[in-house]
Design a protein that fits this description.
This protein is α+β, with helices and mostly antiparallel strands. The chain has three domains: 18-140 and 284-415, Butyryl-CoA Dehydrogenase, subunit A, domain 3, CATH 1.20.140; 168-279, Butyryl-CoA Dehydrogenase, subunit A, domain 2 (Beta Barrel), CATH 2.40.110.20; 428-543. The chain has helices at 18-27, 30-48, 50-58, 82-93, 98-102, 109-120, 128-144, 147-157, 280-316, 328-359, 365-396, 408-416, 425-436, 441-453, 459-482, 486-491, 493-520, 524-535, 547-555, and strands spanning 64-68, 74-79, 168-171, 187-191, 194-204, 211-218, 229-234, 245-250, 262-273, 318-319, 322-323. The structure holds decanoyl-CoA. Decanoyl-CoA (MFK) binds next to helix 7, helix 9 and helix 13.
Length: 565
């Protein structure tokens, strides 16, 4: 009989997840864990049951934009796919955003909420995007305390009732650029106390949202981010018509194909000021903090999904006389990916814990500095990991990983957005430099790493901790040595940040590994920590080119003899 390969399949996504469950046992008091477990079990079952089946049926479907109705009226309807419609219902009823605002478990509600996100996200084709912006909008409105807006929008943004729940957009990018937002050209006009917006938004994600936070420049304001103001708008009027917003077209993107990302023209769109007529960029940063955290959670959950599929496949696929899971080289390859995932996981949930404590007012000033520096670090570190892991997992499937109807290529395409949106790796590295210029966030990070490391006793894990500490100390020396050399500091910023992110992640993974050894008699996280240390956390390198040589090389200009610094 001819041979046909069995497809990979997924077990229950909560009960099968050793890493998540072990972390939750460590992070949550027993009573809290008992209370949140049913919701996580329910989401795990949906993620490997109904949502997974819908996701398979949804493959190849995309949102449809209908600009005109049959009678020539401009309507700009956007119809999302069935998976997204169901995801919206599930997200609301299961409190994927609301859990964080109900705060049934105080600061730990963020851990609960992001554990739900982590389970939900890989089966819902980037429905995490509108949810992240919704969470970010709720947080931003709360941060500014604008009562009228809070009363109108917050109950909707955090509702568990799908018929009431709203999602929000975050429209920042214009044709002038997605990174240098201060260049934005949208004009805000005020007539008799009412504001309207006039301009073009070039990448508006999830344009099916009910409201958006966006930036516009009040007439007469100076250029730059300070001259922009933060605005709130609702997309449709009571009759369901768009409020002077035209959807020019949907973007033809590499991935996130279910997300209806549009180019918009705002031609007199009514909007309300959120917090004064200036400092729009600064005022929208609470949103960025949240969406960057979501980005990291989606990065680790994407890695986890890719690895779960690869692991299952390795048990089924026979080559050269045995299943792949018996093959030393295949196993060694997956072990490295698992180590990357576990380190990214611990780093991400550390930030989630701090975020929850920040929102409940229980962070010290020093911890607030730590959270500020860790937010860009977790986003940039896990974004890079997610792409690398997805790419290797496709390879672990051989040709099947390159074939669309296996669903596997989507893993890579959807991972590739993670280092791009919400700030590229380089823009986030510059954000870390912005943090270093004020206060002592680096000191806060290093002393936190020291405090965490002091509880690690296992001799092999102590070796891994030493690797991390030495990378962190080198990074600090490098930053101090370059403080007066802004160009050199900028040139090395990405390598510096990846060193900080990876080294701190290694410390956290050692802490989890020690706990798991002591309390669960499980050495798997220990193995992950040792492998992660071996893969390397030091990214600064000794042999970096001089800045002059690097710039010449980048531009392919002739240069003298290459010199090591
Ligand atoms: C999978 C789930 C995730 C999904 C979400 C999907 C949605 C996707 C939609 C998008 O992609 S939306 C677009 C996202 N765009 C960005 O993330 C923008 C990237 N660019 C930056 O982050 C730039 O660094 C920035 C726009 C902030 C630079 O603008 P400016 O005006 O040149 O910044 P400047 O002057 O350095 O800072 C202005 C103020 O904001 C300063 O405060 P002060 O006025 O008190 O001095 C800064 O300290 C403060 N600030 C800047 N970044 C901050 C911040 N504060 C806190 N956190 C930050 N990250």
């Amino acid at each position: 009989m001819a041979f046909y390969q069995q497809a990979p399949s997924l077990p229950d996504q909560y009960s099968d997840d050793r890493v998540l469950r072990s972390y939750l046992r460590r992070a949550l008091p027993e009573g809290v864990l008992r209370e949140v477990t049913p919701s996580l079990e329910a989401m795990g079952a949906l993620a490997s049951g109904e949502l997974l089946r819908l996701q398979a049926l949804d493959r190849g479907r995309e949102p449809v934009h209908t600009p005109w109705d049959p009678w020539g009226n401009r309507v700009d309807d956007i119809e999302v796919t069935p998976l997204w419609r169901r995801a919206a219902e599930v997200a609301a009823t299961h409190g994927v955003v609301a859990t964080a605002y109900e705060r049934a478990h105080g600061a730990l509600s963020r851990v609960h909420q992001f554990a739900l996100v982590y389970l939900f996200s890989p089966s819902t084709d980037v429905y995490s995007c509108p949810l992240a912006m919704t969470d970010g909008a709720a947080r931003t409105l709360l941060a500014h305390g604008n009562r009228a807006l809070l009363e109108r929008a917050l109950p909707r943004l955090t509702s568990r009732d799908p018929s009431l729940a709203w999602t929000s957009g975050q429209w920042m990018t214009e044709r002038t650029g997605g990174s240098d937002v201060g260049l934005s050209e949208t004009v805000a006009r005020e007539r008799d106390g009412a504001w309207t917006l006039h301009g073009t938004k070039w990448f508006s994600s999830a344009t099916t949202s009910d409201m958006a936070l966006t930036l516009g420049r009040p007439e007469g304001n100076p250029p730059g981010g300070r001259g922009l103001a933060l605005f709130y708008l609702e997309l449709r009027d009571e009759q369901g018509r768009l409020r002077n917003i035209q959807v020019n077209r949907l973007k033809d993107k590499l991935g996130t194909r279910k997300v209806p990302t549009a180019e918009l023209t705002l031609d007199g769109t009514p909007a309300l000021l959120v917090a004064g007529t200036t400092d729009g960029v600064k005022n929208i940063t609470p949103m960025l903090t949240l969406t960057r955290t979501w980005n990291a959670v989606c990065a680790i959950s994407g890695m986890r999904r890719a690895l779960a599929l690869a692991r299952d496949y390795a048990r089924r696929r026979v080559a050269f006389g045995a299943t792949l899971d018996k093959k030393p080289l295949h196993g060694d390859t997956l072990a490295s990916l698992q180590a990357e995932f576990e380190a990214g996981f611990q780093l991400t949930f550390r930030v989630v814990e701090l975020l929850g404590r920040d929102e409940t007012g229980s962070l010290s000033e020093r911890e607030a500095e730590l959270l500020r520096i860790l937010t860009p670090l977790v986003k940039l570190t896990t974004g890079k990991q997610a792409v690398a892991v997805a790419s290797e997992v496709l390879e672990a499937f051989g040709g099947a990983g390159y074939v669309e109807d296996t669903g596997l290529p989507t893993l890579l395409r959807d991972a590739q957005v993670l280092p791009i949106w919400e700030g590229t790796t380089n823009v986030l590295s510059l954000d870390v430099l912005r943090v270093l210029a004020r206060g002592d966030a680096l000191g806060a990070l290093l002393s936190d790493a020291e405090a965490l490391a002091s509880g690690v006793r296992d001799p092999a894990l102590r070796g891994a901790v030493t690797t991390a500490r030495s990378a962190l100390a080198n990074a600090r020396s490098w930053a101090e040595a370059n403080l007066g050399r802004p160009d050199a500091l900028e040139a090395g910023a990405r390598r510096f940040c990846l060193t900080l992110g990876r080294a701190y992640a290694l410390v956290l993974l050692c802490v989890q590994a020690q706990w798991s050894l002591d309390r669960e008699g499980d050495a798997r996280s220990r193995a992950a920590a040792l492998r992660f240390a071996h893969l390397g956390v030091e990214c600064l390198g000794d042999g970096a080119l001089s800045l002059e040589d690097a710039l010449a090389l980048a531009d392919d200009r002739p240069l003298g003899a290459v010199t090591a610094q």
